[in-house]
């Protein structure tokens, strides 16, 4: 046997395969950037490749794709501002039972068909079906939806389209349905393509693998699994002209994204680790922007059972944790500290400004409260964490653990992944005392907090992982969500937040900022809206 | 020879089915529900129990495990490998999509490792106890000892960021509409080199040890005494025989290579099976995990067979 062949033959095979997989030589091998004319390419980074491109959930990896090829019905930014390119107005009747959506005219699908109320109605119909959409729970309460889903009727009685520009939704009872819908960020799908598709067939429908008809600034080209999704400018976009001829959404881990930002292979990344922000800001051609985020992360969740039932123990924990120190040490200052231990980024009108305790860092007060509660410092508590090791959340939890140990509360942190934590939360909630919480959009409406604290929302029926229960609070949530008088609604929610402030069901540790790193030449980037206005982005003149 | 290969392949069938069964059961024992694993914390907050039950039912997770196993084996026997929970596409399609990039990376890395490892090992044996011998031993030990994730990140920092010689990841330049073969090779070099470095160490050590034994054999002395040129003696007679044990080492290293791919493909955003494995484990995509374990087992079995056949081809004294 020829010995050279032993090593060289496989290498030659590899090169041949590569050559076979390649097209003709293209002289344009630059990696994007501010090229001239129509050959402009933008490359975005995202760490989470989506499993599919169905628009019926809120997977983080789908967001830039849908923001580019479809149009959301309505959405709310992190400052609480409502936006819609599709709707001219959205109104709730005085009795809180009817929501009317009036559409802008002029928006078209890429095949020239007008975007009409029929598209919106079909999109809502899909999202009301729990077998199709993860959002169905949030959007429940539309008149006739249950009858339609059970097959008793062929249409949803409470979802009508009086004309091409109007959608009317009738609700079974006054609720915050419109706010819940706005928080969900629903992308409209084409009725003339999907109108006849049974709900059972939607998951496998070819529309969602090629998007032959879309209505956003870009059109779908292809998805190279494990690498990127490629889009191209849509000349049929009726709201303007997209700034780039081609757009790539690359799925890569954070470290690689940072490296590609530095080398210029990546132009935009909005999952920047706060501890990397200063270093990234020093890259020659990269700019960092940040703004207050909408969700809490991490939350030191507490199980509502012994030995944590006494509210003074939970209050002591809130006093024991140096949240300002954690904000600086773990989040590099890119965060807000909710010292009143309520999600204070809920709309301002709902937040109490008196009669609440400020849980500033006060170890002595924590010890005093523990003494009053006869706390046994021999108690060993278990906390389940699913943070990425070494990441800001992980660092924050470790500091909090040390802070609490200083006052005599001993936690052991067990690192698990999220599916494992979910399973233990469901099957053996008594096997641990604390859990890491994260996420939630509190900027739209305070009622979202109900999902995390109500007695009927215990995990897995809802997101109340700690099995906290306060019936007085539940009554307030119910009253607040059905109250149509805004002043009275504000009063009810303020009372609800006062209870949360005193009960301390969980410790809301940090609200991280949205940090966006982008090529300094990129015009139109706003950390409040992130990729949601991607159609307006372009290279600076 | 053919009957030996046939016999080995026949024996492999129950072995592979055994691996299938064990991996299916172990994967099912992973904690965590696949449906919830696909959902963000925010979605978990608002998802209705009906939605979760419906998804579980669609994926067949509401059935007893033996029913799931029987249904899955039925699909395997028909040439399918089940349906991905995450992507709702046939697993065979997903594997087919990813196996090409993995093969390119693995073959290139293996080739680089073999060429460098065999050359270093040979010269280390020929120059036994010289500075070159010590240097190659120390270097190969270091290559084995440094974790490949660290090596990968260092390589990106040095060669991509500081020197700007290679791209940081991916298989091609995205801005080019039809990237050239050269562009693809350019993207391949860094991940292949990093992967190769972890494999080189054992090749150097085994080649050196084997070569030291061979060059002391009588037939080498005879060849030299007959005036055969030294390089021909070394490469024509010595190395040929010294490489026989190396074929077994290559086969043994296939699982190490597959593990290395998992890390390297993630670091270099290489769209291969390794990255798919990582994503599938995190997403509790049982059918994909089991299929990848199965395919890895097939590779290991085939490479072991190939090692035996190659050894027989290299050494006529070995009778299969």
TrEMBL record, chain A:
CDD domains recorded: PBP2_NikA_DppA_OppA_like (cd00995)
Domain Solute-binding protein family: 83-448
Highest taxon above the source species: Bacteria
Signal sequence interval, chain numbering: none
MF (Gene Ontology): peptide transmembrane transporter activity
InterPro entries (alphabetical): Peptide/Ni-bd, SBP_5, SBP_5_dom
Region annotated Disordered, chain positions: 26-58
GO cellular component: ATP-binding cassette (ABC) transporter complex; periplasmic space
An annotated GO BP: peptide transport
Keywords (A to Z) from UniProt: Signal, Transport
Gene3D superfamilies documented for this protein: Dipeptide-binding Protein, Domain 1, Dipeptide-binding Protein, Domain 3, Periplasmic binding protein-like II
PANTHER family: OLIGOPEPTIDE-BINDING PROTEIN APPA, PERIPLASMIC BINDING COMPONENT OF ABC TRANSPORTER
Recorded family membership: Belongs to the bacterial solute-binding protein 5 family.
Listed name of the protein: Solute-binding protein family 5 domain-containing protein
Source organism (scientific name): Phytoactinopolyspora halophila
TrEMBL record, chain B:
Membrane topology: Multi-pass membrane protein
The entry's keywords: Cell membrane, Membrane, Transmembrane, Transmembrane helix, Transport
Main location as per UniProt: membrane
Cellular localisation: Cell membrane
Domain ABC transmembrane type-1: 99-307
Coiled-coil regions listed: none
Biological processes, Gene Ontology terms: transmembrane transport
InterPro entries to which the protein is assigned, alphabetical: BPD_transp_1_N (IPR045621), MetI-like (IPR000515), MetI-like_sf (IPR035906)
GO CC annotation: plasma membrane
TM segment ranges: 9-30, 103-126, 138-165, 185-206, 242-268, 288-314
Family the entry assigns: Belongs to the binding-protein-dependent transport system permease family.
Entry-linked PANTHER family: DIPEPTIDE TRANSPORT SYSTEM PERMEASE PROTEIN DPPB-RELATED
Protein name: ABC transporter permease
Organism, as annotated: Phytoactinopolyspora halophila
């Amino acid at each position: 046997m020829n010995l050279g062949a032993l090593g060289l033959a496989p290498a030659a095979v590899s090169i041949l395969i590569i050559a076979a997989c390649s097209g003709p030589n293209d002289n344009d091998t630059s990696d994007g950037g501010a090229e001239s004319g129509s050959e402009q390419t933008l490359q975005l980074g995202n760490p989470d490749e989506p499993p599919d491109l169905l628009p019926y959930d809120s997977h983080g990896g789908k967001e830039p794709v849908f923001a580019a090829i479809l149009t959301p019905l309505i959405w709310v930014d992190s400052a609480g501002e409502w936006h819609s390119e599709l709707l001219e107005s959205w109104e709730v009747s005085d009795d809180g039972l009817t929501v009317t959506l009036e559409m802008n005219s002029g928006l078209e699908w890429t095949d020239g068909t007008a975007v009409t109320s029929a598209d919106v109605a079909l999109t809502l119909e899909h999202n009301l079906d729990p077998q199709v959409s993860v959002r169905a729970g949030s959007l429940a309460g539309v008149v006739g939806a249950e009858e339609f889903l059970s097959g008793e009727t062929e249409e949803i009685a409470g979802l009508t389209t009086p004309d091409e520009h109007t959608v009317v939704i009738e609700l079974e009872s006054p609720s915050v349905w419109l706010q819940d819908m706005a928080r969900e960020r629903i992308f409209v799908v084409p009725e003339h393509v999907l109108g006849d598709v049974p709900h059972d067939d939607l998951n496998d429908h070819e529309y969602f693998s090629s998007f032959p008809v879309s209505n956003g600034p870009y059109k779908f080209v292809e998805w190279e699994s494990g690498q990127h999704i490629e889009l191209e400018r849509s000349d049929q976009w009726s709201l303007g002209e997209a700034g780039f001829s081609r757009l790539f959404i690359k799925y890569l881990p954070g470290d690689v994204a940072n490296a590609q930002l530095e080398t210029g292979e990546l132009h935009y990344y909005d999952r920047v680790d706060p501890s990397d922000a200063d270093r990234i800001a020093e890259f020659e051609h990269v700019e960092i922007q940040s703004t207050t985020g909408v969700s809490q992360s991490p939350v030191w969740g507490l199980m509502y059972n012994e030995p944590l039932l006494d509210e003074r123990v939970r209050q002591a924990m809130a006093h024991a944790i140096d949240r300002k120190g954690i904000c600086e040490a773990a989040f590099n200052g890119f965060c807000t500290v909710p010292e009143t231990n309520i999600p204070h980024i809920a709309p301002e009108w709902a937040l109490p400004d008196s009669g609440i305790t400020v849980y500033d860092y006060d170890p002595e007060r924590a010890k005093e409260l523990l003494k009053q509660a006869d706390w046994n410092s021999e108690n060993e508590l278990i906390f389940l964490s699913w943070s990425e090791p070494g990441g800001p959340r992980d660092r924050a939890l470790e500091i909090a653990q040390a802070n609490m140990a200083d006052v005599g509360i001993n936690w052991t942190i067990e690192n698990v992944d999220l599916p494992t934590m979910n399973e233990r939360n469901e099957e053996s909630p008594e096997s641990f005392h604390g859990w890491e919480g994260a996420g939630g959009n509190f900027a739209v409406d305070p009622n979202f907090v109900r999902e995390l604290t109500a007695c009927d929302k215990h995990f897995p029926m809802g997101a109340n992982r700690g099995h906290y229960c306060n019936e007085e609070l539940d009554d307030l949530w119910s009253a607040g969500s059905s109250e149509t008088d805004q002043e009275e609604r504000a009063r009810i929610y303020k009372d609800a937040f006062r209870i949360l402030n005193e009960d301390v069901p969980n410790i809301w540790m940090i609200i991280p900022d949205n940090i966006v790193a982008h090529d300094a030449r990129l015009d139109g980037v706003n950390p409040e809206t992130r990729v949601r206005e991607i159609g307006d982005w372009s290279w600076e003149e | 020879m053919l009957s030996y290969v046939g016999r080995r392949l026949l024996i492999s069938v129950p072995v592979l089915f055994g691996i299938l069964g064990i991996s299916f059961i172990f994967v099912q024992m992973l904690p965590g529900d696949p449906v919830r694993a696909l959902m963000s914390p925010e979605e978990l907050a608002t998802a209705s129990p009906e939605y979760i039950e419906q998804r579980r039912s669609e994926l067949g997770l509401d059935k007893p495990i033996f029913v799931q196993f029987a249904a899955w084996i039925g699909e395997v026997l028909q040439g399918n490998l089940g349906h991905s929970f995450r992507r709702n596409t046939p697993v065979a399609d997903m594997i087919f999509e990813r196996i090409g990039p993995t093969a390119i990376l693995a073959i290139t890395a293996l080739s680089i490792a073999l060429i460098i490892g065999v050359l270093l090992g040979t010269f280390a044996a020929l120059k036994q106890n010289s500075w070159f011998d010590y240097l190659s031993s120390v270097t190969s030990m270091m290559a084995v000892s440094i974790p490949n994730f660290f090596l990968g990140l260092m390589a990106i920092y040095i060669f991509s960021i500081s020197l700007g010689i290679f791209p940081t990841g991916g298989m091609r330049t995205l801005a080019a509409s039809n990237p050239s073969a050269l562009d693809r090779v350019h993207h391949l070099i860094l991940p292949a080199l990093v992967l190769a470095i972890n494999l080189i160490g054992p090749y150097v050590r085994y080649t050196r040890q084997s070569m030291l034994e061979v060059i002391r054999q009588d037939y080498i002395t005879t060849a030299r005494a007959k005036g055969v040129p030294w390089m021909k003696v070394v490469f024509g007679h010595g190395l040929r025989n010294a490489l026989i044990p190396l074929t077994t080492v290559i086969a043994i290293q296939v699982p190490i290579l597959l593990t290395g791919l998992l890390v390297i493909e993630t670091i270099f955003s290489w769209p291969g099976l390794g990255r798919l494995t990582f994503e599938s484990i995190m997403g509790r995509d049982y059918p994909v995990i089991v299929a990848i374990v199965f395919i890895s087992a097939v590779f290991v079995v085939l490479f072991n067979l190939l090692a035996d056949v190659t050894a027989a081809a290299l050494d006529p004294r070995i009778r299969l």
